[in-house]
């Protein structure tokens, strides 16, 4: 069996969630790695959309930021930022928003603003919202990818930057948010999906070699575990080759 790291397993699992022919609003970092892996592998017709206005970008390496010239050079079209949001995102034309997070809570709410209870004097001030709140609100569904620890998976986020499912099922509908919100969370340990009755994140798959107790211990709330937890298939040699080629091109 080909050896792989936990980060590689996470990137591959996230990439597999994207289907051929989908449109995906891509965040920089882990979401961009997964999206570009999918497009170069099983989903060649995946349309990547970046906040800077690059539609149908086909980067030959992982972009450093949404302003990376590689995105514009390889895009089908480059439009203004207002057009990306007003015409493509807000009317619900984009299938999937792929986001990262600094903190994620049990209902899929995302914090990328501050760590600590005092907004004016936080322990850590994070990069902020960017377009993530609108991505979380308006894409047909949202996938979140991040490494798992009790520091990142918290009972309640310190600041709600991007709305997930609020305090439970029905909150999005009450606020008039059109998208389905987070439907999948991919970590370096496994996969979580919202419970259909409560919208609370539930462990549904474990990556190879990971036990449910490990995931529970790495979660800052009492994580629910599905009765029939599956096992994520290990990365194939082809998936790892594409992923490693992307990273080498970006070095």
Class by alpha and beta content? alpha/beta
- Total DSSP E strands: 15
Report the mean per-residue pLDDT as an integer.
Answer: 95
Distance between the termini: 26 Å
N-to-C order of helices and strands: HEHEEHEHEEEEEHEEHEEEHEH
Secondary structure tally, helices: 8
Strand content: 15-25%
Pfam families: CoA_trans
Protein name: 3-oxoadipate--succinyl-CoA transferase subunit B
GO molecular function, one term: CoA-transferase activity
Family: Belongs to the 3-oxoacid CoA-transferase subunit B family.
Task: Describe this structure in a few short sentences.
It comes from Amycolatopsis coloradensis. With 251 residues, the chain is an alpha/beta fold.
Q: What does this protein look like?
A:
By secondary structure, the chain is α/β, with parallel strands linked by helices. It has a single domain (6-250), classed as Glutaconate Coenzyme A-transferase. A hairpin with a 3-residue loop joins strand 12 (182-186) and strand 13. Helix 1 (6-16) packs across helix 2 (30-40) and helix 2 (30-40) crosses helix 8 (237-250). The chain is built from eight helices and 15 strands. The strands form three sheets. A ten-stranded mixed sheet has the order 4-3-2-1-5-10-12-13-14-15, sandwiched between helices. A three-stranded mixed sheet has the order 7-6-11, with no helix packed on it. The longest helix has 14 residues, at 237-250. Helix content is 27%, strand content 22%. The two termini are 26 Å apart. The model has no long low-confidence stretch (mean pLDDT 95).
Describe the secondary-structure layout:
Blueprint: H1 6-16, E1 23-26, H2 30-40, E2 47-50, E3 54-55, H3 69-74, E4 77-78, H4 81-89, E5 96-99, E6 103-105, E7 110-111, E8 114-115, E9 124-125, H5 132-138, E10 141-145, E11 153-154, H6 171-175, E12 182-186, E13 190-194, E14 201-206, H7 212-217, E15 224-231, H8 237-250
Parallel strand pairs: 1-2, 1-5, 5-10, 6-11, 10-12, 14-15
Antiparallel strand pairs: 2-3, 3-4, 6-7, 8-9, 12-13, 13-14
InterPro entries: CoA_trans_fam_I, NagB/RpiA_transferase-like
Pfam families: CoA_trans
Keywords: Transferase
């Amino acid at each position: 069996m080909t050896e792989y790291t936990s980060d590689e397993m996470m990137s591959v699992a996230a990439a597999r969630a994207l289907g051929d022919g989908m449109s995906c609003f891509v965040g920089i970092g882990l979401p961009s790695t997964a999206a570009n892996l999918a497009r170069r592998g099983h989903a060649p017709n995946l349309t990547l959309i970046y906040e800077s206005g690059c539609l149908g970008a086909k980067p030959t390496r992982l972009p450093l930021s949404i302003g990376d010239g590689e995105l514009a050079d390889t895009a089908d079209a480059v439009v203004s930022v207002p057009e990306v949001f007003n015409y493509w995102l807000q009317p619900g034309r984009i299938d999937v928003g792929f986001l990262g997070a600094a903190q994620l809570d049990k209902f899929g709410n995302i914090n990328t603003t501050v760590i600590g209870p005092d907004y004016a004097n936080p322990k850590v001030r994070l990069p902020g919202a960017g377009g993530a709140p609108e991505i979380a609100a308006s894409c047909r569904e949202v996938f979140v990818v991040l490494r798992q620890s009790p520091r990142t998976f918290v009972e309640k986020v310190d600041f709600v930057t991007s709305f997930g499912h609020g305090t439970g099922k029905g909150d999005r509908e009450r606020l008039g948010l059109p998208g389905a919100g987070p439907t999948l969370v991919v970590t370096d340990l496994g996969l979580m999906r919202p419970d259909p009755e409560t919208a609370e994140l539930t462990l549904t798959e474990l990556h190879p070699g990971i036990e449910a107790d490990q995931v529970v211990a790495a979660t800052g709330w009492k994580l629910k575990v599905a009765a029939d937890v599956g096992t994520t298939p290990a990365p194939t040699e082809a998936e790892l080759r594409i992923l490693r080629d992307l990273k080498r091109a970006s070095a």
